[in-house]
Amino acid sequence: MTLTVPRPAGPPGPAALADAVDDRLATFVAAEAAALVALDPRLDLLAATARDAVLSGGKRLRPLFAYWGWRACGGREPVEQVLPALAALELLHAFALVHDDVMDRSETRRGRPTAHRALATAHGRAGLTGDADRFGDSIAVLVGDLCLVWADRLMAQALVPPAALAAARRAYDLMRVEAIAGQYLDVLGEHSPVWTVDRALRVARLKTAGYTVVRPLHYGGSLAGRLDSSVAAAFTRFGTRVGEAFQLRDDLLGAFGDPVHTGKPAGDDLVQGKPTVLLQLARATANVRRRTELDALVSRFRSGPPPDSAEVQRLGELIRSTGAPERVREMIADRVAEGIRALDTAPIADDARTALTSLAGAAAWRSS
Predict the structure, then answer these.
(1) Do residue 136 and residue 23 come from a single domain?
(2) Which residue pairs, CB below 8 angstroms and at least 24 apart, start in 10-14?
(3) Are residues 165 and 257 in the same domain?
(4) pLDDT tens digits, residue range 26-70?
(5) Is 151 found in the same domain as 109?
(6) 299-335: pLDDT as tens digits
(7) Cα(22)–Cα(246) distance, rounded to whole angstroms?
(8) Number of structural domains, the chain?
């Protein structure tokens, strides 16, 4: 499907833009997968798994924020000229998710087997030898790497001046470095006996806020060629607060979300013992008895056999008893409000301000 917005109609809505991104991704991935298989027919499993990782759905938030960064800085229709660069952010996202699932040993994503689990199953069906799980992990790493390369290739197809594309590339590179730094700290936190709320928030700023909101806004503004310092500063303030809210909501969904909506098992973050703000707040506010029990459960989840449902339920009960979920909801509301205020005096078009305000609420209070 091609995005068509009659002139002089306004910009596309979120659904239309997401559809356009999906269409561009499908066309691009089909061509890249065909080229890959042409090298050797046995590459079909790698190509198909990468295709599924990219096209299996998602909220397309990063292209949406990038689009409104572009619009806010003077970008105008037709959107097709920047659509490859917007869609490239979803290839970067697929890279991050596939690798993240391997590191977290996640079984499902969006209600389907994760790439490494699907590949382990394919190993048996294909009659391959050796360890199926190791095969799945190894090929999933390559799938993620392939998506990262594809992101660069698709970005290069944007029809914008070279100087604008180079500026966008600088924002994109910062996005990748910060996401990797945040992911490292996230993994480090899972293996550290002591972690704090402040450190958990720092992870949220690096791994989520920069990667989901701040840098996509800078990236979009750079594509327009008009990202001045005042707008960049407003984007940073807005994006940091909204991105933190996004991650805090993710913490709640990872602990208490409905699997029907999240596509993940109930209490997935609890099972993994992730050092989230939610968990650290619970530790900080629990009495000695509850904190001792909470720490013992988290320690066992991280180093012992998979917990049973009763243990996961008990950890959830302990967290709820401290009032930490309510505090996290207050933090989300505060951050959304602070982020929206950051746009009040920013020199951007009213339609961009309105759209970003709406996106802030949708990102912070989503159900999946």
Answers:
(1) yes
(2) 10/351, 11/67, 11/71, 11/77, 11/79, 11/351, 11/355, 12/79, 14/60, 14/64, 14/359, 14/362
(3) yes
(4) 999 999 999 999 999 999 999 999 999 999 988 899 999 999 999
(5) yes
(6) 988 887 888 889 999 999 999 999 999 999 999 999 9
(7) 22
(8) 2
